[in-house]
Amino acid sequence: MKIEDKEFEPFIDDKQIAVKVKEMANLINQDYAGRKPVFLVILNGAFMFAADLMKEIDLSSEVSFIKLSSYQDMASTGQVQELIGLNNTLAGQDIIIVEDIIDTGETMSHLLKKLEELVPRSVEIATLLLKPEMLQKDIEMKYVGFKIPAKFVVGYGLDYNGFGRNWKEIHQLKEEH
Ligand code: IMP
Ligand code: MG
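# magnesium ion complex -> structure
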């Protein structure tokens, strides 16, 4: 699969993703039994993960969206832009942040700070992917799908310069030889 000048190869297929998403949802269903969490989905990347995760959630729950951006090409800019903001109905709520991938942790730590100001009851993170070697922030993540190497990935919501989000499998950047 190719996007612009980059070649990508299959990495995590749709079946593996589905199994993992179901596992994560099961844990959340158990942990939040009797509560009504708000799933706070970080756009754009988490849209597909969030849609599949929510289908497996059997709690009475709400979904809310925030749009953040820190990536350009293949590297985090270190600057987090807020394109759609938070609303203050999150006060007193049990929030589960739904994210596609945590890389440096810059985006997440920015959001966690913002959320604190709204005084939610609790905040936990559900991220499908984590690049442990890249992480620069001390962030507690309760639900992590796959820990992956520090290589660029695309598909299942994740993009390279806007493309590849529609692929049902996650692809990894092919090493150039
Ligand atoms: P962080 O702020 O460095 O943790 O970056 C997090 C954001 O960067 C994620 O929400 C993604 O949108 C994007 N990102 C990080 N790694 C990748 C990747 O390998 N492929 C596509 N997007 C990525
Ligand atoms: Mg994202």
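# post-check
The pocket of magnesium ion (ligand 2) is lined by residues 42, 45-46, 99-100 (CB under 6 Å).
Residues 72 and 162 are 10 Å apart (CA to CA).
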